[in-house]
Every structure is written in C-alpha cells, then in structure tokens.
C-alpha cells in the first residue's frame, strides 16, 4: 500500500464556511498556489507495516523527495524551518517538481494499482497534490 505525504506552506486562506463548493474552491486555490516543498512516499503491507526489503525488520524505508521550485514565505514556513528544513539548500539541490511529477507518472507507480487504500495526513490536500 503506497502512502504519499506532501509538505507545503501554510494555507493562503482558511475556510469561513462549511459549504462544499466554497471549500472546494478554496482547496483548489491553495493547491494551485502552494508549491510542494517535499514529497514523501512509503510502501507498506496489508497490515500497514512499512516494507523492510529483506532486512528482517532492521530497517524500514521512506523516500523523501526535496523539491526546489517553491517560494519561501517566512511567515508560513517557520514551522518547517524549526523542524530543520534548509530552504537555501533545497533551492540549489532540490528536484524540479515538474520533472518529479513526470517521472512519477511515467514509472507506473501511481497508475499501477487498480484497487488502492489511501492513507492521508492532511486529507483533501494530499489528494489535491
């Protein structure tokens, strides 16, 4: 079972109403306006245990892809900076998000599973990205 966790800036706008169309429009606006900073992928078995790739449980794996084409807004990235993100290095050594998306789609990883369970961390925003 794959899981995907996007790291992004804090939201541009917060919902003021619980109306479906209004919330959907705000979600779309936030996803379109906020570029990913990092994308994390994991694979797990039916019980939710991360794959150990024959290490007999000694190691579990998560792949973190640091992207570079995002704007730094200190007011919305302070929580990530306090968690150790070095935004200057990400801009230099990060992956182009368009190239990452292209490679992820062409790998078949995203489209190869017909019946999939999804694990989300931020719900609709995970699916939006």
UniProtKB/TrEMBL annotation:
The gene is LOC103698180. This is Probable CCR4-associated factor 1 homolog 11. GO terms for molecular function: nucleic acid binding; poly(A)-specific ribonuclease activity. It comes from Phoenix dactylifera. GO terms for cellular component: CCR4-NOT complex.
């Amino acid at each position: 079972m794959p899981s995907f966790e996007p790291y992004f800036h804090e939201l541009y706008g917060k919902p003021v109403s619980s109306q479906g169309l209004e919330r959907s429009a705000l979600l779309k606006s936030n996803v379109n306006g906020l570029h990913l900073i990092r994308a994390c992928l994991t694979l797990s078995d039916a019980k939710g245990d991360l794959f150990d790739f024959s290490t007999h449980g000694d190691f579990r794996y998560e792949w973190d892809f640091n992207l570079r084409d995002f704007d730094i807004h200190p007011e919305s990235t302070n929580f990530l900076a306090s968690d150790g993100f070095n935004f200057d290095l990400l801009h230099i050594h990060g992956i182009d998000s368009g190239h990452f998306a292209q490679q992820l789609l062409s790998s078949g990883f995203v489209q190869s599973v017909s019946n999939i369970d999804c694990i989300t961390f931020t719900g609709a925003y995970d699916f939006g990205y």
